[in-house]
Every structure is written in structure tokens, then in C-alpha cells.
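One thing: can you check what follows?
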Amino acid sequence: MKAVWKFLLLGVCLYAGLTALVYFRQSSLIYHPVRDLSATPQHIGLSFEDVELVTEDELRLHGWFIASENARATVLFFHGNAGNISHRLNSIAIFNRMNLNVFIFDYRGYGQSQGRATEEGSYRDAEAAWSYLTGSRGIDAANIIVFGRSLGSSIAAWLASRHRPAALILESSFSSVTSMAQRLYPFLPVKWLAKFDYDTRSYVSTIACPLLVVHSKNDEIVPYAEGRQVFDAAPADKRFLDIRGGHNDGFLVSGRAYIENLSAFIDDQL
């Protein structure tokens, strides 16, 4: 009997330790920023402008504006939770070949942007990027495609719920942090532990622009069901694109099908 109690006590201690670890290390579980830029668009033959944004709370963010000759619209690009803008050159090249300008920037704490990553901060960063395009550059909202991948899809959806871009594209999106955490830690009371929301499903439910949700059934990080939940929560003007490949390379593995479907969706909104 004594051995059983010791075993139970050990189990309780391990459970409590894991619970505490998840609770106190949430930020490091969500954000994986890299400070050093490994390349620039010039490395793939594209000219670009370095851009400095100033947020509402007076942090300076760094981004790139990559102009396309005879551009038909501008993509406002929200990247995922790891790395920085220099790791998105493949996507920049794809959009450039679609005759689209691209504005991509690093959230606070990423790349050359000041500060430390937070959820509220990422929303302020999104507003600063929107203000730059519509204010400083004078681009009409009807000519802006908001694009988000992975974590960036939640930030993009948040922005689109507060403004009206030409369209919203969400790739490899999750419905909320709580939903994802419940899948990863089904044995923990994540509803009570979660400090983050990133409630993509709630954000898309109020958008007033057309939506394209892109997801792969082979996504090993964000389950396909998460993308379907986001799609189901959105208003009627929406499309779903199935692609192949993993979380980080699906858009490359899917190749022409990915490019043609994105391009066709964008054509229909302009």
C-alpha cells in the first residue's frame, strides 16, 4: 500500500510539474523568433525597399516592400511563429510572379524589429502595417490582399475583422490557441491555463471580405480539422483549397495547383 501511495504522489508531482511548465512557458512555446536576417529579396533577384514602421506604443518594426511591375494588387503578408521575414523568400517570389506587390514585416521581437513578442503587440503590429499601406503608401483597401500563414493567419484574420481588404487568405490556420493546446495536451485543463487567445475562428466569423482557406491533410503541426473549423466559422463568401505536403512546405510541394488556385481567387476579387 505504501508503494502505491508513493507512486500516486509521484504521478501528482509530475502532473503538477508539467502543468506549471506549460503555464509559465507559454510564450516560448508559441513564439520562436530569429533575430538575424539570412538573406534579402535581392538574393532571388528582386529589388525591394527597407521599411520602418512605428507602432501605437512607439516600437519600430522592420519590413520589406517588394514592388511588382504592373502590379494588380498588394499582398500584406503575416508570417508564421518561427524565423523572420528572410525565411519567406519562396512565398515572396510566388506572389511576385503573380504580379502582386508584397509587403512583409517582422512582428516585435523578430528580425530587426524592436520589442518582445506578445499577442496584444502582434495586433498593434498588424494595425501599423495596415496604416503604412493605406496611409503612407496611399493604397486603397480594395487593392490589398491580406495573407496569413500559421500563427500569421490568426493575426491576419484579426486585422480583416476590423478593416475591409479586397480578400483574406489563411494558410495552415488554427481555430484558436486553446483548441490547438487541447489537441497537444488533452490531459491538461488548457482552458484554464491558456494565457493566449489568437481566436481565429471568432475573428473570421465577422469578416466582410471574401475568404480563401488553404490547408493540407498532411499538415503535421496544425491538423487539417483546425483549418476546416476556421472555414466553417466564416460567412458565406468563402472557398477552401486542399493542398499536399507538410506544414512548412505544402505551398511548395503543391506547386502549380497552389499558384493557379490562389491566382484565380485573387483575380475574382479585383
User: Anything to note?
Assistant: The chain has a mean pLDDT of 90.
